[in-house]
Amino acid sequence: MEEKIFGLNDIVEMKKAHPCGENRWKIIRLGMDIRIKCEGCGHSVLIPRKEFVRKLKKILVKQNEES
């Protein structure tokens, strides 16, 4: 199975949109669980990494890790 590489502060698109209508999420915490924040309303959600990988559709904006 192909694993998508994602990092902190990346903007991702999930398979299902948030109830507010936005489908852009910012990764704000990485670990066993991943916290993502809705770019529309600012609501944050903590989900297990395995579930996040399964629900991830694509990475929209890749954050540079150089800084």
Describe the structure.
- With 67 residues, this protein is mainly beta.
- It has one domain (11-61).
- Helix content is 10%, strand content 40%.
- A 5-stranded antiparallel beta sheet has the order 4-3-2-1-5.
- Strand 3 and strand 4 form a beta hairpin.
- The model has no long low-confidence stretch (mean pLDDT 90).
Order of helices and strands: EEEEHE
What structural class should be given to the helix and strand makeup? Answer: mainly beta
Query: What is the CA-CA span between the terminal residues?
Result: 31 Å
Please tell me the total number of domains: 1
Q: Tell me about the biggest sheet?
A: 5 strands, antiparallel
On the 0 to 100 scale, the average pLDDT is 90
Count of DSSP strands: 5
Question: In terms of topology, how is this protein built?
Answer:
Elements: E1 11-14, E2 24-29, E3 33-38, E4 44-48, H1 49-55, E5 56-61
Antiparallel strand pairs: 1-2, 1-5, 2-3, 3-4
Could you provide a short overview of the structure?
The chain has 67 residues and is mainly β. It has one helix at 49-55; strands at 11-14, 24-29, 33-38, 44-48, 56-61. Strands 4-3-2-1-5 form a 5-stranded antiparallel beta sheet.
